[in-house]
Automatic annotation (TrEMBL):
Organism from which the protein derives: Clostridium neuense
Record has Iron-sulfur as a keyword: yes
Family annotation (Gene3D superfamilies): 3.30.70.20, 3.40.50.360
NCBIfam families: ferrodoxin_EFR1 (NF038196)
Sequence ranges assigned to domain 4Fe-4S ferredoxin-type in this UniProt record: 187-216, 217-243
Stored InterPro entries: 4Fe4S_Fe-S-bd (IPR017896), 4Fe4S_Fe_S_CS (IPR017900), EFR1-like (IPR047964), Flavoprotein-like_sf (IPR029039)
Protein name: EFR1 family ferrodoxin
Pfam families membership: Fer4_7
UniProt keyword terms in alphabetical order: Iron, Iron-sulfur, Metal-binding
Length: 250
């Protein structure tokens, strides 16, 4: 049996969960290929099962992930799938948001769960997760990976309760926020060139090619606010609304 784990991760939380899940399968002698959806390669209907995982942005999956699911996830003939999100609050609504889409493509969702992880969006009025809470969440997440893999392999269907109304409302709010997200970097981020070492990790790491770095940084208007650029910077050179801030580190 071989599975495919396809994921998007802005700042590493979802990637961390994906690695735990892959290890749990490996402990049970089940091989998984890990596929980052930023890779342009097409994946095929050649796996026995699929795992999809993404962060939650504004209570639902980011458009970047939904677009990939719609356009590039293969159509399959009744393949079992495990659907995961990571988010700062207790519940995210991405699973409910995409379950119809996945079913239409031939996936049978066996396990659907939104896993709490530290907040990676803590600028403006949002608060960073405290260090204590972070440790608590990260230690709990190993149990989540075990529960997901064991539940999935037992074929115990587990679909987390995610409110229909909140999901629909969140989809609408996400749509309304799209222009704000797309302008997030252009409007809010600048670089402190006294600190910047011009390594261009921000440019190379951006999942949507929103950054051009020649002598200075230039942002386009297709940002998804995933915070990758900020997190990739090795010297803390980004400023938010002109002020330095503490970066999230993994
Ligand atoms: C633009 C943006 C919006 C977010 N919105 C939410 C949200 O509505 N609810 C929530 O619980 N967490 C929210 N978060 C926090 C992330 O879901 C959380 O940190 C997630 O684990 C990040 O995963 P990643 O590191 O794989 O990108 C948001 C993060 C970003 C960057």
């Amino acid at each position: 049996m071989k599975g495919l784990i396809a994921y998007f991760s802005g700042t590493g939380n979802t990637e961390y969960v994906v690695k735990l899940v892959s290890n749990e399968f490996a402990k049970r002698n089940i091989e998984c290929e890990i596929f980052n959806i930023e890779n342009d390669k097409r994946i095929k209907d050649e796996y026995d099962f699929y795992v999809f995982a993404s962060p939650i942005h504004i209570e639902v999956f980011p458009k970047f992930f939904i677009d990939w699911l719609s356009e590039k996830a293969p159509a399959v003939d009744n393949k079992r799938c495990l659907l995961l999100s990571t988010q700062a609050s207790q519940v995210g609504y991405g699973g409910r948001q995409v379950s119809r889409l996945l079913e239409r493509k031939g996936y049978s969702i066996v396990y659907m769960r939104s896993i709490p992880m530290p907040n990676n969006y803590y600028l403006g009025k949002f608060k960073a997760t405290s260090e204590d809470k972070k440790l608590e969440m990260v230690s709990e997440v190993s149990n989540e990976a075990v529960a997901a893999v064991e539940g999935f392999l037992r074929d115990d269907v587990y679909i987390e309760k995610q409110s229909f109304y909140i999901t629909e409302l969140s989809k609408l709010v996400y749509k309304l926020y799209m222009p704000i997200l797309n302008n997030f970097a252009k409007k809010n981020l600048t670089v402190d060139y006294d600190i910047c070492i011009k390594c261009k990790k921000c440019e190379k790491g951006c999942p949507v090619n929103n950054i051009k770095f020649d002598d200075a940084i230039h942002f386009d208007k297709k940002c998804i606010a995933c915070q990758r650029c900020v997190q990739k910077c090795p010297v803390n050179a980004f400023k938010y609304k002109g002020e330095h801030f503490e970066q999230l580190r993994w």
